[in-house]
Amino acid sequence: MKSKDNPMVVERYTVLDRTAHTIHAVAMLVLIITGLKIYAGWDFMSFHTARALHMIMVPALLAVNWILIPYNIFSASEGGVMEKLAHFMDHYVFGPEDAKRMKAIILNFFGKGEYPAFTIYDEVSGHYKTKLHPIMKILIVLEGTAIFLIAVSGVVLYKLDWSLFGLPLASWILSAGDLIAPSFGMSSLQLLRLSHLLLTYWFVFELVVHVGILEFDPHVWKYYKAIFWSGKEDLSDSHYVEIVKPNPKHLPDRELWHDSSDTPSEVVKD
């Protein structure tokens, strides 16, 4: 959706998108810090405080990832099931076009070619075709899997006989672990505890990649403002942005240009 005041300013994230991302980020940071405190025994807070914060953030993280984010994804597109599925595939699933962008990114790292646009806005539909870095599309799948597994292992670590609506979930998880744990010379509980710790380290690694590497480039700092505050993006800032024009018979010519820092980008020539 374009701004009435400036047609080059579009809505990149809705209020619900920004709410979900903020809660997700806060919950994940608190869970990592308190989890490592519980495991390593750091002295900056008491065990009981850390455990209480940990247990508050668990349902917040799960509610955002399993309820709010799916709702945002599938309510963002118009049409029926097939249209919504196509929207999901284009925006969140690593596909052939993302593979091409990844190849270009790797070549750019070695000084061959330009860094490809990973934000693509379609003026015909008035919506983004994609707005995620291709590596993020890979991380999203891995993160979703990791959140499920760490939640499962966390159930047992919280309470060995925990049940939900009368269903002995913790006992079922321990029984499932008994099928695998002996192969590693462990008990089911030991395996689940180790898995929980390793998955915590995975989230630390993902945080470093997501924030410390992919978004260390000043040209993508504008996305921090969009995801946490404004929700808007100015498409006239052409770094990593490609605009699909309305008339497919007269595609715009694109040329490389360099700013004062010699960072390659794409601009659209009318």
UniProtKB/TrEMBL annotation:
GO annotation (BP), single: respiratory electron transport chain
Keyword set includes Ion transport: no
InterPro entries reported in the protein's UniProt record: Di-haem_cyt_TM
Residue ranges crossing the lipid bilayer per the database entry: 21-40, 52-74, 138-158, 197-214
Keyword Magnesium: no
Lineage: Archaea, Methanobacteriati, Methanobacteriota, Stenosarchaea group, Methanomicrobia
Enzyme Commission (EC) number: 1.12.98.3
Keyword annotations from UniProtKB, A to Z: Membrane, Oxidoreductase, Transmembrane, Transmembrane helix
Group of enzyme by EC: oxidoreductase
Coiled coil: none
MF (Gene Ontology): Methanosarcina-phenazine hydrogenase activity
Record protein name field: Methanophenazine hydrogenase cytochrome b subunit
Recorded GO CC terms: membrane
